[in-house]
Write a structure and sequence with these properties.
Layout: H1 3-17, E1 22-28, E2 33-39, E3 48-54, H2 58-65, E4 68-74, E5 78-88, H3 91-97, H4 100-105, E6 115-128, E7 133-137, H5 141-145, E8 157-159
Antiparallel strand pairs: 1-2, 1-4, 3-6, 4-5, 5-6, 6-7, 7-8
Domain General stress protein FMN-binding split barrel: 9-147
Protein name: General stress protein 26
InterPro entries: Split_barrel_FMN-bd, Stress-Dev_Protein, YdaG_split_barrel_FMN-bd
């Protein structure tokens, strides 16, 4: 996939999710799938999504055992993002992303060793704009899986019920 195409697709996802503060993060458990609301970090989307969490949460353990996740956004458009999550404990990155609101939400500070970041490396995004069609974006698919971009049906448009 060309860098131009990848950049255009990243800009599309960036535009679709930029004003949506809360996403639903879905992880895999022994019992099945679990979703919970998460505040997306206010950073320029570059193919990765960032979330804060604590080590004592179920999602922390779930990601350690299975990195496949889905992140769903609902706003003017609906966006479903598939990716692989990793736990990041980089103090400088936590400081960079931390905001005043987290002091109250997390009831601690960014340098608390119990606070970690979840980094989701986006593999593919599917979105529904206002209207009756679905578009798929697989801009990061090649980077993450090493597979040929053509096999991901890049920019496929599927007509839904009208």
């Amino acid at each position: 996939m060309s860098n131009t195409m990848e950049q255009k697709e990243m800009e599309t996802v960036r535009e679709l999710i930029k004003d949506i503060d809360t996403a639903m993060l879905t992880t895999v458990t022994k019992e099945g799938l679990v979703s919970r609301p998460m505040k997306t970090q206010e950073v320029e989307f570059d193919g990765d999504l960032w979330f804060f969490t604590k080590k004592e949460t179920n999602k922390y353990d779930e990601i350690l055992h299975n990195q496949e996740v889905n992140v769903a956004y609902a706003g003017k458009s609906y966006v479903s993002i598939r990716g692989r999550a990793e736990i990041v404990e980089d103090l400088a990155k936590k400081k960079e992303l931390w905001g005043f609101a987290y002091d109250k939400i997390m009831q601690t500070t960014y340098d608390d060793p119990n606070i970690v970041l979840i980094k989701v490396k986006v593999e593919a995004a599917e979105y529904w704009e206002t209207g009756s069609f679905t578009k798929r974006i697989a801009f990061m698919f090649k980077r993450i899986t090493g597979q040929n971009a053509q096999s991901a049906d890049v920019n496929e448009t599927v007509e839904l019920n009208k």
